[in-house]
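Re: the 70-residue chain
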Amino acid sequence: MITLENLNTGAALDGDELEFFVDDETMIGEVYLDGELIYQDLDIANERLLRMNFYQSWCELDMGSEFEYA
């Protein structure tokens, strides 16, 4: 189980699979949680940059006793 929290709004989302995609032609990066688009970024050259930008707006929470920061 993955729990994500939006650092700007405090909204939380739960899911099982987090996927990162970058379209090399359009340079649009997208992040999906269980197949649902939750984040989109423009002018992204690669998945590494998409992940960095995503984790500036979202954090992954460990539902145990501690927080996990990606």
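Helices lie at 47-57.
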